[in-house]
Design a protein that fits this description.
The chain has helices at 15-26, 63-70, 104-115, 129-142, 176-186, 203-219, 268-276, 296-304, 384-399, 409-413, 443-456, 509-526, and strands spanning 2-10, 33-44, 51-60, 75-77, 97-100, 121-123, 223-225, 228-236, 239-247, 250-255, 258-261, 281-283, 286-295, 319-321, 327-334, 338-341, 351-354, 363-372, 404-408, 428-429, 432-434, 469-474, 481-483, 496-498. With 529 residues, the chain is an alpha/beta fold. It folds into three domains: 2-77, Alpha-Beta Plaits, CATH 3.30.70.2700; 97-282 and 488-526, FAD/NAD(P)-binding domain; 285-474, no CATH class. Strands 14-15-18-13-22-19-21 form a seven-stranded mixed sheet. A five-stranded parallel sheet has the order 7-6-5-11-24, with helices on one face. It has a four-stranded antiparallel sheet with strand order 2-3-1-4, with helices on one face. It is globular and about 70 Å long. The two termini are 36 Å apart.
């Protein structure tokens, strides 16, 4: 296979045009191209003449001769590597492998183990995805918060009620990321996610995919127990021996020598339980801020100019360093999306963003956030970041009596409560009302955000429009905790494997799924089937 980079085509091209471009780049007849696979497809919108840009793996006759003849820097041998799970180890055990949490990390860990013949037991505090959707929709419409099943907890994890973005900055030399995307396709995703730049699925499609993966895990011999919360761990001589699970108010124990902690970034009560059980952990940096909404048409026209109505919903990424040294940046940008009330604790308010697969909402939104470090928390201990988040979320809840706090940008800058909307009407899942975000966030974050959003107007005209809609508080960009693990991915209590975003080793759906695979590999390498 030959790898061809930087093939540029008009946005109205067809498959025949692409095949012709491959042959022309290789300077061969089209009949010499046996097959090709799209590795990456992106949009080059730097000039008004917008193009699609391809990276292609092509199988052709006489590949070595073609390479010797062309000597082009954009044509080389393909580096595609197929992901292969390791073979099982020799350590025998009659105890079941327990996975706590059924978000991306837990799902892919369980799936990999099941593929190799293990029969893991997954315990998930929330409900199955269909029941969960009903519970979440009731929260959006009636404000009835279920603290065990919500936007954060339940089948699929927090990512199920997000944009379903699958981009990651992780280097993928072993092919894990490609395996994750191909697995999503196997269970119902559009095949284009394996090659488009910044792929996404959408919450409507992702919910079906995680359900299909659960069915396959069960078909392979695994087990998934919903409404089942990890409440205690039991260890002896530095090794795990059992876990206690709470289901419908009843407790029961499961003997185990292998526990995967894929608990997600919002399992605060579980963090405290683990701390009490002397699991080594530490606080870590994360980011907090607001959501900002603009009209998607404005973003579209800025990014794609005269091609705005001919291309998929445009996204953006902006960064800025404020005068106080703080980094301000966009996070989890949702084209054609919605702001979501993502609360999971009583009398606390947190928000997130999501899109459906078509990304056809009238607004674009993204988090605009500022990094906070352990020294900013004003507390001590590994869970000081959790308490910092809770403080902000309590303030947000009180600011508007539990409703999502909304404020126009000009009013935020001038420290006053908004009275009316301008040209942008918020698209929010859950009740919202006008409040003052200045009363919620610390002064250093308010100063940084105001300066940063104004500066981003130089990059995207209209970004700092007076009537841009802010909402708060975006407090759960990533876990405030890292559960320490060694080179074998085990914690200080042997047999416990901290995993995914909640354990501090991932920052999104794909990276969490990859970490789930890494943990599964370590267990497989050690343990006999």
């Amino acid at each position: 296979m030959l790898r061809l980079n930087q093939i540029k085509l008009d946005i109205s091209h067809n498959e025949e045009d692409l095949l012709k471009a491959i042959a022309d780049n290789l300077k061969v007849k089209q009949s010499k191209v046996k097959s090709y696979k799209i590795i990456k497809k992106s949009v080059d919108a730097r000039k008004d003449n917008v193009k699609y840009v391809y990276c292609i793996d092509a199988e052709v006759f006489d590949e070595d001769k073609i390479l010797q003849r062309l000597h082009k820097k954009d044509i080389m041998k393909s580096e595609y590597k197929e992901y292969v799970l390791p073979m099982p180890g020799n350590e025998k055990s009659d105890k079941r492998i327990i996975i706590a949490g059924f978000g991306p990390a837990g799902i892919f860990c369980a799936y990999a183990l099941a593929l190799r013949g293990y029969k893991p037991v997954v315990i998930e505090r929330g409900a199955d995805v269909d029941t969960r959707k009903s519970i979440v929709n009731r929260f959006f419409t009636a404000g009835e918060l279920n603290t065990e099943c919500n936007v954060q907890f339940g089948e699929g994890g927090a990512g199920t009620f997000s944009d379903g973005k699958l981009n990651t900055l992780i280097k993928d030399k072993e092919g894990r990321g490609k395996f994750v995307l191909e697995t999503f396709v196997k269970f119902g995703a559009n095949p284009e996610i394996t090659y488009i730049n910044k792929p996404h699925i959408g919450t409507d499609v992702l919910s079906d995919i995680v359900k299909n993966m659960r069915k396959e895990i069960i078909n392979l011999g695994g087990e998934v127990r919903f409404n089942s919360k990890l409440s205690e761990i039991h260890s002896s001589n530095g090794h795990i021996e059992a876990v206690t699970v709470v289901c419908d108010g009843n407790k029961y124990d499961i003997e185990t020598d292998t526990l995967v902690l894929a608990i997600g970034h919002s399992a605060r009560d579980t963090f405290y339980m683990l701390k009490d059980e002397n699991l080594n952990m530490e606080s870590k940096a994360f980011a907090v801020g607001v959501r900002i909404e603009h009209n998607q048409k404005m973003i579209q026209e800025y990014m794609y100019k005269s091609y705005a109505d001919k291309l998929p919903a445009a996204d953006y990424k902006v960064t800025y360093q404020a005068g106080n040294g703080r980094g301000v940046y966009s996070f989890c940008m949702c084209p054609g999306g919605y702001v979501v009330n993502a609360s999971s604790e009583k009398e606390m308010l947190a928000i997130n963003g999501m899109s459906y697969s078509k990304r056809d909402g009238i607004n674009a939104n993204s988090a605009m956030v500022v990094t906070v470090n352990p020294e900013d928390y004003g507390g001590s201990g590994p869970l000081s970041g959790v308490e910092f988040q809770r403080k902000l979320e309590r303030l947000a809840y009180r600011e508007c009596n539990g409703k999502v706090v909304v404020q126009l940008f000009d009013d935020y800058v001038n420290n006053r409560i908004s009275k009316d909307f301008g040209s942008i009407m918020p698209q929010i899942k859950g009740e919202y009302g006008f409040g003052n975000i200045n009363n919620i966030l610390p002064e250093f974050i308010n100063v940084s955000l105001k300066e940063g959003i104004k500066a981003c107007n130089q990059r995207i005209p209209g970004f700092a429009a007076d009537d841009a809609v802010l909402s708060g508080v975006e407090s759960r960009t990533s876990s405030p905790v890292r559960i320490n693990r060694d080179e074998l991915y085990e914690s200080n209590i042997k047999g416990i494997y901290p995993c995914g975003e909640g354990a501090g080793y991932a920052g999104g759906i794909t990276s969490a799924a990859i970490d789930g695979l890494k943990v599964a590999e370590k267990i497989i390498e050690r343990r006999a089937v």
